[in-house]
Amino acid sequence: MEFTKKIGGVILLSGFLFGCKKDDNLTPLPPVLTSVETAKFDAAIAKDWMVVIREIVKTEAKNPPQASRIYGYTGVTLYESVVMGIPDGQSLAGQLNGLNKLPVFAGPVDYPAVANEALYKVCKEVFGALKPINSTRLDSIYAINLTNRKSGNELTTIDNSVEFGKQIATALLAWISTDNFKETRTMTYVVPSRVGNPQFWAPTDAVNLNPAEPFWGQLRCFSMTSADMCEAPELVPFSTVPGSAFYNQAMEVLTVNQNLTQGQKDIAKWWADGPSVTATPSGHWVGIENDLTVNLKLDLATAASMYAMVGIAEADAFISCWYSKYKYNLLRPATYIRDYIAGNATWSPLLPTPAFPEYPSGHSVSSGASSEVLTSLLGNLSFTDRTNTYLGFTPRFYTSFYEAANEAAMSRMYGGIHYREANESGIKQGRAIAQFLLRRVHLKK
């Protein structure tokens, strides 16, 4: 006679024969090891890794496109490390461009340990050369998590997990290496002359003379079929004629900046998200995800899905946005106002003008994409954003992800950095990117 009993999601098999006496000399059978489902774990390891990744992005002064690439690849790495433990989970292999096959593992594994190993190996590569303090950060979080996972797990399970994590990382790094990033490091860009083209962008400050990532639009997209597929065309024609639509856009930026309320200044600075001071615009949304992971008590499966999908959306948002920026190559409000609005030759905006063209707004595309994905995955939630409180700012409350995204977009006008069209079109472009992603990529079988 035999019977089964289910304990903690693991099925145990027992058996005995009638008439047999107990034999204390029998060697007990080793326990049958099975992998615990991903959803049985909390998301602490995912959140802790993303906290460290954000800190390294900040302290290594990664620019916004580079940061989005890092968040995209680490989100995919996290998800692929644990998807085998999601009963109806679907790998991203065959769904993302160029990602055709990933390894599977037959033995029992501990999914947090798999993620720890894979994230460590991928971060070492995608960050490149690191400052000593950041190398120590990576080594430390890896060692702490590995030690924690060894507690309460069979040695065989941990050994399997480390091996599987290495296999996942190796396969993903091979994919990552073909995204055209390395090739763009050696390309040369010459800023187009404004002679005969007064609408063209020009660097605005002595400290910002080198255009940021002019070839970023040539990177392989994660989900989009091309960098321009979700592009929001520029509709307001350039003009220096007073009263024209474009002139009025510039006047709006000027007028708003001359009459900023304290609340508007607070919004501009909250969403400024500059490199070296913050984890960049996409990292702002990763910070929001970190809070959501804790406040909503997300399990590892849910959190990994969220980090992956938002990361992919962010990465594609910056590829798409940067393609458009250097295609339209539109001058910034600071240049227009100084050159074409009388009496403002020395005008300066509230925030420093970034070193890349104006249209569309990167903050807006990024926020539009993130808000769309988060709303799809988690619903129309209210939340408190604490991302930049370490800078001395007060937390901000939003009734929805969309409300936060719209404020992030508008903050760029308050900062004097973008015209209204760049913000509004950017939000539309970001949401279109996310909607395409949600139609193409499926996390459930």
Short description:
The chain is mainly alpha-helical and 445 residues long. 50% of the residues lie in helices and 4% in strands.
Describe this structure in words.
- It is a single chain.
- The chain contains 14 helices and four strands.
- The protein is mainly alpha-helical and 445 residues long.
- The protein has two domains: 44-182, Phosphatidic acid phosphatase type 2/haloperoxidase (Vanadium-containing Chloroperoxidase, domain 1); 198-218 and 232-440, Orthogonal Bundle (Vanadium-containing Chloroperoxidase, domain 2).
- A two-stranded antiparallel sheet has the order 1-2. Strands 3-4 form a two-stranded antiparallel sheet.
- A hairpin with a 2-residue loop joins strand 1 and strand 2 (10-15).
- It is elongated and about 75 Å long.
